[in-house]
């Protein structure tokens, strides 16, 4: 991959790209929702399919010249279907938010009630935050974590569900370090006659490789992003374990036949909420799913979890408080209350030392989302670089030194130097970096 044309035609934009390549190479990326795609995914995502308009679905497009992008979309669907054991897959959502919007609008009417994990307890904006479409279109009943266990409080979930009779319950979140309890959520949804939607954006790669339980037997619809643990290009996806007649009695216009749920989901994505699909990204999703089907990806996912658990153990040994006491997955959520530093100050100090994390609210946080009492740390990106358990211990040591001395410029420089040595040992996109 060469950037000669870009460098010649637009040096200003080229320099911005070079700086980002340098930043990714020279820092420790610990944001739990980020990863580094393979060169193959990068090439497909940067490829000529960005030129193609293809509104519609394979075999039923509103444009000519779609035979080849049809092949790409079918390949992505077929591979995703195998990865997740899903009968229906829609690979067109541009993002996780779009996937969630299409899924919600399929199962829930505007004004009806849904339940989702409170954002401050590890949920997601699209699970009912008042500032998001989900909170504006639907009546939201948030559920929470138990203060003692740091896990979903199922007594509260059942109580709220019985009281409010939601049309749909969302399980999953963006800062939940434990397995999503699909079976328990299914029990609640079943009891009150609600639909169950799982958002597996964070653990998707772990689900695909069997290191996290599968939502398919329990959920009416499953959404995900493709770029976190799944290590594909930035995007979203919707899946259904077993397709079947829709429960709303909607019929096809000409035949009067009752439509399948997959047909309603398809039309909610396009034309419901999106126009032309990003065919270069859909083709790159196909490449990433092909990688995720290999034994090497399974080893990678095992290592993600080993690394996160090694980090968790090391943090605990240094008197850090972890929400839920540890992790089953790729992330740890640290409550910094006993370390006399806010999440915001920790994020900034670590960034100056070359370590990228994000501030994060912890359950029952007394601080605002702009300050927070915690940080979220994830292992997918550094594991892609080849880091193992030994490097996790080194990273915890580096983080600890900064947290203890956030204003010590000498220590910051010392840690920065050690980060650089570590990054040089595990090069990222070396030829792009050297170009
Ligand atoms: N913004 C993502 C995350 O960081 O978890 C979720 O969409």
Structural class: alpha/beta
Overall residue-averaged pLDDT value: 97
Taking the alpha carbons of the first and last residues, their distance comes to 10 Å
Number of helices: 17
Ligands bound, unique:
D-serine
Give helix % range. Answer: 40-55%
At CATH level 2, the architecture of the largest domain is 3-Layer(aba) Sandwich
Q: In the CATH scheme, what's the topology name of the largest domain?
A: Aspartate Aminotransferase, domain 2
What's the name of the CATH homologous superfamily of the largest domain? Type I PLP-dependent aspartate aminotransferase-like (Major domain)
Instruction: Please give the largest β-sheet.
Output: 7 strands, mixed
Please mark out the parts with pLDDT under 50 across 5 or more consecutive residues, or reply none.
none
Beta-strand segment tally: 15
What form results from the Cα inertia axes? globular
Provide the gyration radius in Å. 22 Å
Main β-sheet, spatial strand arrangement: 4-10-9-8-7-5-6
Counting structural domains, the number is 2
CATH class of the largest domain reads Alpha Beta
What percentage of the residues does DSSP assign to strands (E)?
Answer: 5-15%
Description:
The chain is an alpha/beta fold and 435 residues long. The longest helix has 23 residues, at 295-317. The protein has two domains: 45-292, Type I PLP-dependent aspartate aminotransferase-like (Major domain) (Aspartate Aminotransferase, domain 2), CATH 3.40.640; 305-433, Aspartate Aminotransferase, domain 1 (Alpha-Beta Complex). 45% of the residues lie in helices and 13% in strands. The strands form four sheets. A seven-stranded mixed sheet has the order 4-10-9-8-7-5-6, with helices on both faces. Strands 11-12-15-14 form a four-stranded antiparallel sheet, with helices on one face. It has 17 helices and 15 strands. A hairpin with an 8-residue loop joins β11 and β12 (331-335). Bound molecules: D-serine.
């Amino acid at each position: 991959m060469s950037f000669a044309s870009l460098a010649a035609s637009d040096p200003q934009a080229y320099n911005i790209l070079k700086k980002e390549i340098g930043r990714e190479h020279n820092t420790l990326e610990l944001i739990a929702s980020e990863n580094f795609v393979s060169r193959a995914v990068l090439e497909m995502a940067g490829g000529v399919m960005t030129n193609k308009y293809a509104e519609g679905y394979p075999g039923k497009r509103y444009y000519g010249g779609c035979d080849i992008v049809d092949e790409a979309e079918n390949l992505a669907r077929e591979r995703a279907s195998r990865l997740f054991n899903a009968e229906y897959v829609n690979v067109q959502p541009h993002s996780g938010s779009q996937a969630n919007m299409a899924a919600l609008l399929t199962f829930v009417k505007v004004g009806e009630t849904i339940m989702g994990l409170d954002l401050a307890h590890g949920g997601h904006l699209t699970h009912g935050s008042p500032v998001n479409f989900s909170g504006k279109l639907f009546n939201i009943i948030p559920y929470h974590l138990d203060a003692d266990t740091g896990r979903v409080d199922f007594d509260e979930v059942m109580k709220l569900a019985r009281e409010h009779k939601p049309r749909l319950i969302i399980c999953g979140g963006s800062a939940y370090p434990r397995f999503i309890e699909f079976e328990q959520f299914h029990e609640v949804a079943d009891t009150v006659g609600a639909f169950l939607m799982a958002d597996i954006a964070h653990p998707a790669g772990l689900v695909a490789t069997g290191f996290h339980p599968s939502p398919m037997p329990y959920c009416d619809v499953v959404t995900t992003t493709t770029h976190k643990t799944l290590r594909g290009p930035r995007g979203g996806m919707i899946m259904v374990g077993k397709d079947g007649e829709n429960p709303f009695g909607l019929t096809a216009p000409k035949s009067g036949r009752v439509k399948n749920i997959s047909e309603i989901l398809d039309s909610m994505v396009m034309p419901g909420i999106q126009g032309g699909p990003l065919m270069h990204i859909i083709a790159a999703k196909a490449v990433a799913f092909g990688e995720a089907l290999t034994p090497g990806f399974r080893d990678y996912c095992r290592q993600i979890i080993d690394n996160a658990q090694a980090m968790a153990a090391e943090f605990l040994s240094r008197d850090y408080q972890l929400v839920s006491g540890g992790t089953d997955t790729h992330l740890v959520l640290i409550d910094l209350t006993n370390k006399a530093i806010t999440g915001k100050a920790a994020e900034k100090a670590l960034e100056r030392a070359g370590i990228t994390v994000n501030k994060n609210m912890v359950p029952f946080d007394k601080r605002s989302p702009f300050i927070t009492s915690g940080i979220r740390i994830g292992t997918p990106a550094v594991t892609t670089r080849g880091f193992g358990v030994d490097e996790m211990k080194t990273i915890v040591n580096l983080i600890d030194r900064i947290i203890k001395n956030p204003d010590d410029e000498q220590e910051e420089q010392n840690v920065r130097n050690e980060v650089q040595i570590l990054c040089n040992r595990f090069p990222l996109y070396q030829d792009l970096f050297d170009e």
